[in-house]
Structure formats: structure tokens, C-alpha cells
Design brief:
The protein is mainly alpha-helical. It folds into two domains: about 120 residues, no CATH class; about 160 residues. The chain is about 80% helix and about 0% strand. The C terminus is likely disordered. Keywords: Membrane, Transmembrane, Transmembrane helix.
């Protein structure tokens, strides 16, 4: 087998494994994995949990797992056939092709997870008696402003790069398509998050309400990742070509790409935080997050 075939085989194995790992860590395939996922949620939100609440969370995760599993299946189905054909043929594969094979399964899995967590995070069982909380809330009550700012910056960076590529005469339209998709999905997510935040909060007791608020915060945080998934290919796959078209100097291109990558890594390191707990503290300031 050639080096290209070995590399494609490696990517073909790793991409489904990464999608599988994302599903296992977030919602779990089995009861034991769901229990560990609930434990991670408990550590993230730092809320009391009793047997009844554990059962509610287990039932919700069992229903929630269908979304990311379906997303992973779609992503793997999209990349596996061409990946196998290229590997068996032994022809040199373009770098972009290998990148897409690694990117698509994970992106589809996370989109499925975002949709599923949003649907089940804001779904209420009408059979259970609940007391409504009607105080007006907004999207900012649930989301972390630093996380939202990060994904807005990613979309802005992708849009600027795609526009620069078009004006510089880059003979590719896909960066512009993905940048427009990132902008459109960001607008849609902003509107949807605001609408969801205005829904009445209903719970049987204070503990259930606090858990629901934490899960809703995580759901909205996952939604804001979707525009970032459209922006990342522009920043990761096409940025070198666009910058090379603009400057024409390999040394300058490498310097600019490295600077942008370092800047993005710094923004991620200093701004991104696990959401949920801070939202619970904002919505329940008196009781905070009891241990």
C-alpha cells in the first residue's frame, strides 16, 4: 500500500471514531455511558441531583442521542464511499479531500447534537403538573457572552477572507458559499435563541427548574457552534490559498496564516468556558449552585 493509501485509510478510520467518541461523551450509547454523561453534567452544572432527577436526565439523554447518531451516520455515509474508492485506487489524493473526509463526520455529528439538545432541552412533558415562571428572559440570560463573541468573530473572519478572495480573483466560489452559510446560520441561531429564551419556564420544583435552565443554556451554546462549523473550513482549508493570492509571497503567507491561527487559538483559550453553571447562577442568584 502506498503512503497515500495508508493516509486515507487512517483518516477513514479516525473520522468515524471521532464521531463515535463525540456521541459517547455527550449522550452515550448504553445506560452506563448515559450515567457517566449525567455525572459530567452534574460536575459541569454543580447542582444537587436525586433519584427522580437522575431518571429525568437519563430519559432525556436516551431520546437526545438519536440526533447525533443520525448526524454521524449521515457524515460517515457522505465521506466513506469516495474515501474507500480513493484508497483502493491508490491515486494521490488532494489535501483538501483528506481534510473534508476528516471534517464532515464530526461536523454532521455536532449539528445533530445541537438540534437534538435544543429540541429536548426545551421540550416539556405536558402530562406532568408544572408551575409556570413567566418572568421575561432573553438569550443573554442563558448564553455566555464570551462564547457568543467567539463564534461571531469566527463568522466575521470567514466572511472577510471569502470577500478578499473574491476581490483578489480566487477561482473558487466555495469559500464564499460557506461564508454566506455561516452568516445565514448565525442570524438564524440568534433569532431562534432569542425566541426560545422567551418561552415560559415550567417546573414542578425549584431543583427541576434549575436543572432545566442549565440544560437550556448548554443547548443554546451548542446552537452557536453551528455557524462556527460553516466558518471553520474557510479559515482552515482556504485561508492559505486566499492569503497567497493576496500577497503572492510564500514567506508572508506562512507568517499571516500562523498569526491568524495563533490569534484564533488565543481567543479560544481565553474566552471559551463551559456554559450552564454561570447561567444557573444568573437566573438563581439567591441559591446559586448548591454542592
Amino acid at each position: 500500500m502506498s503512503a497515500t493509501t495508508n493516509y486515507l485509510t487512517f483518516v477513514g478510520l479516525m473520522a468515524p471514531l471521532m464521531a463515535f467518541q463525540l456521541v459517547r461523551q455527550s449522550v452515550g450509547f448504553t445506560a452506563a455511558q448515559r450515567a457517566r454523561a449525567i455525572e459530567r453534567l452534574w460536575r459541569r452544572l454543580q447542582l444537587p441531583i436525586d433519584e427522580e432527577q437522575f431518571g429525568r436526565l437519563d430519559d432525556r439523554l436516551e431520546r437526545m442521542r438519536r440526533g447525533p447518531i443520525l448526524g454521524a451516520a449521515i457524515g460517515i455515509a457522505l465521506v466513506l464511499p469516495p474515501l474507500l474508492i480513493a484508497a483502493l485506487a491508490g491515486h494521490p489524493a488532494p489535501t483538501e479531500f483528506v481534510h473534508w473526509c476528516a471534517y464532515v463526520p464530526g461536523a454532521c455529528t455536532f449539528v445533530g447534537l445541537a438540534i437534538s439538545t435544543t429540541v429536548h432541552g426545551f421540550h416539556l412533558d405536558p402530562a406532568l403538573p408544572r408551575v409556570a415562571r413567566v418572568e421575561p428572559l432573553s438569550r443573554s440570560d442563558y448564553t455566555d457572552p464570551r462564547s457568543v463573541l467567539l463564534f461571531r468573530l469566527l463568522v466575521l473572519g470567514a466572511a472577510l477572507l471569502a470577500a478578499a478572495g473574491l476581490f483578489a480573483g480566487l477561482d473558487q466560489v466555495l469559500p464564499a458559499v460557506f461564508a454566506l452559510a455561516a452568516i445565514g446560520s448565525l442570524v438564524a441561531v440568534e433569532l431562534l435563541a432569542e425566541r426560545l429564551a422567551h418561552l415560559p419556564r415550567r417546573a414542578r420544583n425549584e431543583l427541576e427548574l434549575r436543572w432545566d435552565d442549565g440544560l437550556r443554556a448548554i443547548a443554546l451554546d451548542n446552537l452557536f457552534v453551528v455557524p462556527g462549523l460553516f466558518a471553520m473550513p474557510v479559515l482552515a482549508f482556504w485561508a492559505p490559498d486566499i492569503i497567497r493570492t493576496l500577497f503572492g509571497d510564500a514567506a508572508v503567507t506562512g507568517y499571516v496564516v500562523a498569526s491568524v491561527a495563533l490569534g484564533i487559538a488565543a481567543v479560544v483559550a481565553f474566552t471559551i468556558r463551559p456554559t450552564g453553571r454561570s447561567s444557573v447562577e444568573r437566573l438563581h442568584p439567591r441559591k446559586g449552585t448548591a454542592a
